[in-house]
Amino acid sequence: MKRVIAVLLLMLCLPMVVSAQEQGWASKFFTNGLTHNFGNVAHGAVLTHKFTIKNIYEVPFVVADAKVSCGCVTPIKPKGEIQKNGSAEFDIEMDTRRITPGTVKTVTIFVTMMSVAQKPGDKIYSSMAYLSVTCIPQGNISCNPDRVNFGIVTAGQSPTASITVSHRTNRQWSLDVGKNDLPFDVTIQRGAPVRGFASIYQINVTLRKNAPAGEFKHELQLQTTDPATPVLPITVEGIIQAALTATPNNINFGNVKVNEGVSRAIIVRGNGKPFRIVAADGAEDGLNIKFGADPKVAQVVTIEYIPKKAGPLKKSITLKTDQGAEMSVSVTIEGAASP
């Protein structure tokens, strides 16, 4: 009998051992962990989480592929190469509408990392990491719509978007914003109970005027009085369109030899009114920014990189105009210099 119990215990442990062995060296990219547990969540919500990727190797890498064990999770791969010592975010969305309420749902994401050849004949390295996300949708808590979505907003505006969160059985259920260091303000209004719902709340999210331009996706965590669901995550997303835009706004020079130059051109557009670029803050470390002197509705800017010493490059330069602080734009520049 003891031998049978020992065999059963070994069988229970075996999947964990195998799983650990199956993790390839690609798992080392995910420095902040390979798993995330959302806990108890509202059924009908779309959940988001960001896994951080950091390239600890000597050559650039890309996320070559990302597959999932369940269609309720959508992976969003970072674009472009991740240079040595560079970082990127690997996003996932988990749709609780496709999960049976009350069940523990764990989904595996199979992420393939692949090196980028720097010259013909370079060996390509590839490995797979296994990420996982878990949640338990609660059938007695629901939200409508599935997230707070602002759509496209012009920079400097302060619109409000709302979501309704309800509890089917608990009349004493209440919500609180708690600590909020996100670029929006949140207010909560209690509504009158209706048939089928004991507690109803409208969550109003107001975007701050100084919210930075670009695409955003945040997890708002509401505090609840339900011990089974003390924290309720709500996804807040949208796109803030800057008054001034640069295309492209991310330049990767790749690998450049010391004292050899390479250049890229970008187009800076405003709101239809002619403007002049008057300065480029952050232009150092071998960077040279060239732009015209005449006012135009669209300006061509040339960014030249002539490294003086070996090492990685990752900088953000800010192009300023004669139209004031609001009419400025930032461009991210990456690369690496080799001897």
What's the topology here?
Blueprint: H1 2-22, E1 35-43, E2 46-54, E3 61-68, E4 73-76, E5 87-95, E6 105-115, E7 126-144, E8 148-154, E9 160-167, E10 175-176, E11 184-191, E12 199-207, E13 214-224, E14 231-241, E15 245-247, E16 250-257, E17 262-269, E18 277-281, E19 287-291, E20 298-305, E21 311-321, E22 328-338
Parallel strand pairs: 1-7, 8-14, 16-22
Antiparallel strand pairs: 2-5, 3-6, 4-5, 6-7, 7-9, 9-12, 10-13, 11-12, 13-14, 15-17, 17-20, 18-21, 19-20, 21-22
Task: For the structure shown, list the relevant keywords.
Immunoglobulin-like, disordered N terminus, 4-stranded mixed β-sheet, mainly beta, 1 helix, 339 residues, 3 domains
Number of self-contained structural domains: 3
Q: Approximately how much helix is present in the residues?
A: under 10%
In CATH, the homologous superfamily of the largest domain goes by the name Immunoglobulins
Low-confidence stretches: 1-21
Strand count, sense and closure of the main sheet? Answer: 7 strands, mixed
Q: Shape from CA axes?
A: flat
Say how many strands there are: 22
Structural class: mainly beta
Q: Report the end-to-end length measured between terminal Cα atoms.
A: 68 Å
Average pLDDT confidence is 88
